[in-house]
Each structure stands twice: as structure tokens, then as C-alpha cells.
Amino acid sequence: METINIIDTPKHVNELVKIGVWLTDKRSSGKIAFLQLRDGTAFFQGVVLKNKVSEAIFETAKKLRQETSFWVTGEIHEDARSKFGYEIQVEDLEVIGESEDYPITPKDHGVDFLMDHRHLWLRSSRPHAILTIRNEVIRATYQFFNQEGFIKIDAPILTGSAPEGTSDLFHTEYFDRDAYLSQSGQLYEEAGAMAFGKVFSFGPTFRAEKSKTRRHLIEFWMIEPEMAFMHQEQSLELQEKYVAFLVRNVIDHCKDSLETIGRDISVLERYTKTPYPRISYDQAIEMLTKSGMDISWGTDFGSPEETYLADQFDQPVFVLNYPKAIKPFYMKPHPTREDVVICADLLAPEGYGEIIGGSERAVDYDYLLDQIKKAGLDPDEYSWYLDLRKYGSVPHSGFGLGLERALTWITGEDHVREAIPFPRLLNRIYP
Ligand code: 4AD
Ligand code: MG
């Protein structure tokens, strides 16, 4: 007899199989017990008929407590009434680990309670579905960039640089000197692009932002591609192709998970069509002021502004060329305007805000050195980065997609904390 996973049961109809499972819920009467089972790969039902098993097994089945682990042996049958479509007709049960009173019951719990029990909550169907989709986004990311001829260059986590500004750095000690946790791998990816052409990184990044919003994590994962010999317009084409590819793959490979969380696939379909609309920062300001919002040129957008702008389109929208004063030092200056840089943020529909930040990079040594000084950074810390402009500097562009922001949008969740297994938030580093 084969030991299999629930996900593979459709290939074993009418066969006797053995599966290691946990109990999520149960219901029983005098003659029949319905066991809700999970094994990590999927959720399905076990049926125990009193007249088909020994008295002892039926009694064991009736007494099983939530989250008890056990081996279940039985025949796989089709079950058109259930969502999964198959069930197991139980013949034998062998308890592996008893369970104490499980804190997460099928009733409603508050968010703090669930987050305090995140290590257990991961077992429930909703987080399970969201994190399954996260895995698909990661898988599709590697597929996409491999297909496009990129190679993965890993950026360090411990660094001496602050590409995204010094206000939200996580400080740490590095033996007898200071170091910071990475805010972005970008500067290292730029070095990688000069060595390999097209590169990307995927790793954790850290921002000590005192923001308690639905969009901010303290630790989040970013995908950062960087392309040599590429101007901003080609980078935007790559970005929309990538995002559409992610959504396409989630629709095609995560139907069950999307159904579990109640995400409307017809809405997601809209995001698989490219090109995405593009507006300039100037146009965005005009749209916002016309709508009666109190914002002037030169100000960065907050959540209400991003939501309003995104609501004017039914696809993600690129906002191009923000004021130089509110963007990092490394962005390419506009060829004819002093006040803006060649960059774009991609705003997700449905109020999810910025999911990508990217730009063409400044290539001129003197300009960049000047910008580094103006940003209050120590040029010595960046001399390696400046070297990239000394030895065959070329036009290049790149961007960063926040995995959890993108996943929150794709899954339609309310809060970015749902999109990562163990969120680090302003007030949470447990569990
Ligand atoms: O716009 P950001 O700060 O851009 C960079 O870090 C660039 N160096 C990227 C690059 O060009 N290689 O961050 C990029 C993305 C944002 O668009 C957002 O999706 C996500 O990272 N992000 C966050 N996600 C969750 N919590 C936070 N606190 C985030 N801050 C940024
Ligand atoms: Mg940004």
C-alpha cells in the first residue's frame, strides 16, 4: 500500500492508501463520523462508517481532538459534494501525536490573538491558501527572470550603505564598527549588472519605519532586477510583463487557493492585460487637485492619493518622473528638466498602493558624487559604487517589487501582515 499526500488522491481513486494527517474538525453520529483532515498539501474529508471498521477504531475516531496527528488508511472515493472532490473511506487509524486543547477553534478570533498564535494559525485554510499563492509568486518570479535571460545575484544583508535614505536604517554592530541591515540590494545589483548584464536579487530587506499602516512591514522581501544597456521605457515594459505574468500564473496554478480566500478571478484577469497605463507625476498632481484633494507639486503621495489615482484606472498604473527632491540620490536626472528624475512607481488597483519603485540610474561620476554628498552620505562608503561609473559606465535601469505588497493586492487581503509567514510589525516581533 502506498503512502501518499492528499493533493495526489485524485490519482488513486478506488485504491487503498495511507496518509499522515492532522484533524481540523469532526462531526459524528451513532453510525458515521466525518473527519476534516489536512496534511499540509490540501484539506479533505475522511468518512468512518461504524459497520465498516472495528468498534475500537470507530471509538478512536469519535474521540479524536482537533490537531491530533495520525496515520489514516482507507480507500479514495470521488465526492462530488465537497470542494476538494475526493474523500477517504477510513479503514484504519493510528494516532501519532495527541493534541491538547487547541487554541484556534472554528469560531472567530481577534487579529491579535491570531497573530500571537501565528505559528499555529499557519495551519488554517486561509493563511495556508495565501502562503501557497506566495510560493507561486516566488516560483513564477524565478521562471520569469530565467526565461528573460537574467541571473540571480544575491546582495548582502549586512551593509554599510543606505540607498533609500538614512532615516529608517536598522543599526547593528559589525565587530568594532557600525553596520546596517539592508534596505535594498539595488546598489549591489548595479555592480552585478555591469558583470552579468541582466541580474536580479530576491531577499529580505529591512526598514525601521515608524509606520503603522496596512502597507508597511519592518522586514519584507523584495525582488530587484537590474539591467545594463536598458533605458527606462524598456524597463517599464519588462515590469508590466512581469506583473502580468505573476497574476497569470496565480490564476492558472492557484485556483483552489483563490477560491478558499474568495478572490474574484475575473477581476484578476484584467491585470493580465498589458500595456498598463502611464501618467506623469505632473498629470497625477493635476488629477488630484481637480478632484479637490489638498496636495501641491513637490509632495510625495500618501495612501489616499495613491488610492485615488489607481481608482481612475482598472489596471495597475505607472506614475512617471517624480520630483528629484523626494527620490533617492541614484536616479537619472531628466534630460531637459532640473526638477524631476527618470523614475516610476507602479500603483496597484483597489487601494493597494505602490507595489514597484524603479528608475533609470544616474551614470555620470561627478553628478553621482555630488548627489551622494547632497544626501548627507559618506562618499568613502560609496567609493565602490562610484567605481561603476569610472570603468565603462553604461545606461542601466532597475526596479524593486515588494513581494508582500504585490501578494496582498493579488490575494485581495486587507493587511500586508497576511502576506508573510511571520510578520515583523512596529509592535510585533513574536512569534
Ligand atoms: O520604492 P522602494 O523603496 O525602492 C527601492 O528600494 C529601490 N532600491 C528598488 C530598486 O529600484 N531596486 O521599495 C520598493 C518596493 C515598494 O514599491 C514596495 O512594494 C516595497 O518595496 N516596500 C515595502 N513593502 C512592505 N513594507 C515596507 N515597509 C515597504 N517599503 C517598500
Ligand atoms: Mg518607493
Task: Describe the overall structure.
By secondary structure, the chain is of the alpha+beta class. It folds into 2 domains: 2-97, OB fold (Dihydrolipoamide Acetyltransferase, E2P) (Beta Barrel), CATH 2.40.50.140; 118-419, BirA Bifunctional Protein, domain 2. The protein is built from 13 helices and 17 strands. The strands form 3 sheets. The protein has an 8-stranded mixed sheet. Strands 2-3-4-6-5 form a 5-stranded mixed barrel. The two termini are 39 Å apart. Bound molecules: 4-amino-1,4-dioxobutan-2-aminium adenosine-5'-monophosphate and magnesium ion. 4-amino-1,4-dioxobutan-2-aminium adenosine-5'-monophosphate (4AD) binds at residues 163-164, 184, 186, 207, 209, 216-217, 220, 222, 224, 354-358, 398-400, 402, 404-405, 416. Belongs to the class-II aminoacyl-tRNA synthetase family. It is found in: Cytoplasm. Keywords: Aminoacyl-tRNA synthetase, ATP-binding, Cytoplasm, Ligase, Nucleotide-binding, Protein biosynthesis. Residues 131-431 form the Aminoacyl-transfer RNA synthetases class-II family profile domain.
Mean pLDDT: 97
CATH fold naming of the largest domain: BirA Bifunctional Protein, domain 2
Gyration radius over CA: 26 Å
Q: Percent range for helical residues?
A: 25-40%
**Ligands in the structure?**
4-amino-1,4-dioxobutan-2-aminium adenosine-5'-monophosphate, magnesium ion
The run of helices and strands is EEEEHEEHHHEEEEHEEHHHEHHEEEHHEH
> What's the multimeric state?
single chain
The count of strands amounts to 17
Pfam families: tRNA-synt_2, tRNA_anti-codon
Subcellular location: Cytoplasm
GO biological process, one term: asparaginyl-tRNA aminoacylation
Enzyme class: ligase
